[in-house]
Design a protein that fits this description.
Length: 112
């Protein structure tokens, strides 16, 4: 749960604190316009989720770990829908990271 929470906070902080950097970092130039207001809301939601994960890391239940797996795993279809907008290397790295986090959280939940 610690790794899942830190990862979620990382993505959230990028959106909340550096929306234009995050936009340029992940997407091809001109593919997606930065939207600092909406990215701030997304960042707040991700940071809030990440903090909740971090605060429950010592008492996480099987269902919370399954929820973390779903949270990470649902990023994959969103990325797939936006695949043409992503920088290819970002799509590969982030799909691997999010998929890996989903698999890790699901594996941990299976052992609980």
């Amino acid at each position: 749960m610690t790794i899942a929470g830190v990862g979620m906070c990382n993505y959230g902080a990028q959106m909340l604190l550096a929306p234009e950097f995050a936009n340029d970092f992940y997407y091809k130039k001109g593919a997606v316009e930065a939207s600092p207001k909406w990215q701030a809301w997304m960042g707040q939601a991700l940071v809030g989720n990440g903090i909740t994960m971090l605060m429950s890391r010592k008492v996480a239940t099987k269902q919370q770990m399954q929820g973390a797996a779903v949270a990470w795993g649902t990023a994959l279809p969103i990325m797939a829908m936006q695949k043409d907008d992503f920088k290819p290397e970002q799509l590969i790295v982030n799909a691997a990271f999010c998929g890996g986090m989903a698999l890790l959280c699901a594996k941990v939940s299976d052992k609980m």
